[in-house]
Design a protein that fits this description.
This protein is of the alpha/beta class and 402 residues long. It has a single domain, classed as TIM Barrel. The chain is built from 16 helices and 11 strands. Strand 8 (287-290), helix 13 (298-303) and strand 9 (308-310) form a beta-alpha-beta unit. The longest helix is centred in the middle third of the chain and has 25 residues, at 219-243. It is globular, with a radius of gyration of 20 Å. The two termini are 31 Å apart.
Length: 402
Amino acid sequence: MKLSSGALVFLLAAGGVQAFSPNASPAPQSHLFGAAAAEKASSKKGAEKTQDPLLIRAAKGEKTERPPVWMMRQAGRHMKVYRDLCKTHTTFRQRSEIPEVAVEISLQPYQAYDTDGCILFSDILTPFPAMGMDFTIDEKLGPVMPTIRSFDELKQLHAIDTDKTSFVAEALRTLRKEVKPETAVLGFVGCPYTLATYLVEGKTSRDYMEIKKMAWTQPDLLHAMLKQLADNIGDYALFQIEAGAQLIQLFDSWAGHLSARDYDTFAAPYQKMVLDKIKKAHPEIPTVVYIKHSGALIERMAATGVDVVSLDWTVDMAEGRQRIANGRKNAGLEGPGGVQGNLDPGILFGSHETIKERAEEILKKAGDTGHVMNLGHGIEATTSEENAKFFIDTVKNYRHES
């Protein structure tokens, strides 16, 4: 798949509307992405690179002695210890906004499975109250919040006050102390388009028609919202890094509902704004982007300059790696880029033989450089802990042939 040579999108900037094309050669930057950057850094630092956790080295594009592994939606309902904890802390916001509880939940899968990454237990909506937009999470319906559908209502959204997310920093600092040095502590943020879907729809949506209506009838309003969100989320990512996060994963979950043209217009430029802010302040921190049902968008995702593209299970790993490399090359970026994923979470309901066969097929195709093993989406709530552990152990025991 090739990027459209005519693809052109517009980014609302302080000085007006600025053209952005995923095919264009980027302006000179002070940072590099992917494997090339890792190799340049390693040539200067020598043995220092071995001090990074295994997962971080893989995310930086380095060759690793074995594939690192963690699971998206790592902590949660598939674990009995989590379900038991929910009886005491009955709301999601209690569980994610009380630091000691968030730490306990974050550590549950790490302690049970010895994963190579320990991701903060939180939510992409967590920073919203610090931007002036409160929300609730209904255990059955999911998030519910007031809507923004006019410029007057957009005034509610203000610059993020990270003092109001101090519980996130406290949890990350504690996690850095609790995990082994060879384990990576992972932070994450939601991308502007996905966050905007909640602001416009007011809840999780089936077809995201309200935000699409805004894109087609009030594009200036949507761009203004996305610009504010990108500024805020970039600052929130830096806040997590300064508190101890060693990698930032960006979730643009609902961007997979966009056409390629609309992705180029309403998602990619704002992902890039967040990524550029991270890399300008912390070029050493690797970044990962994930979009559900993103098979048609892989080259475009890679063209943003993210270090690692996380694949769902609808794309063959070998093809995905080649398409990531092509997307970066077409955008003028150095190195082939890293990859994460891409096991179907449903495979974890299969036999141990099936789990082993499917996981090892992905590992073989991914190779020994720049790959973080993961699921292609979050682990399902009814997955057995035995099978989850078997998956992790399978990956940790795997070695690439010389």
